[in-house]
Design brief:
Helices cover about 5% and strands about 35% of the residues. It has one helix and 14 strands. The chain has one helix spanning about 145-155, and strands at about 5-10, 10-15, 20-25, 30, 40, 45-50, 65, 70-75, 85, 95, 105-110, 125-130, 140-145, 160-164.
Length: about 160
Amino acid sequence: MTRDDLVLTPTHLRFAGRRFPRAIGRGGVTGDKREGDGATPRGVHRIVGMLYRPDRMAPPADWAVPIGPSDLWSDDPGHEDYNLMVRAPYPHSHERLRRADPLYDLVLITDWNWPRAERGRGSAIFLHRWRKPRHPTEGCIALRPEHLRWIAARLRHGGRLIVP
């Protein structure tokens, strides 16, 4: 582990010598992730993307990509686009990335089950804003919005997320 790694601890996320309160999946941490189990997958994951809402914030880093109105994330294990960003119209099961609430205003995308997804192993494992302090997620890691922005401004593409 290095100072530049994001490291999940029992109560915080550690990065760049700082500790940030965090929330994880309602199913805890698992080594056997499945779609819909609400668990955060154990392992060493790369940060492979950063998305942001350009109508709500400035780009947090030079490699951040704006979220458009038709941007979605496929969570349909039966479809070939499973665990990939897709565009509307998309008739299969998906998550809308441009949400009415601020949950996905800034998203760090991990390489969990990506880019060649094994169907049913889980999709859309992100780092994003939390709903309220320490409120469980569907498997993502969630942070206070100001902490997420601080991390995003300093994180490099390909950085590691370590979930012991």
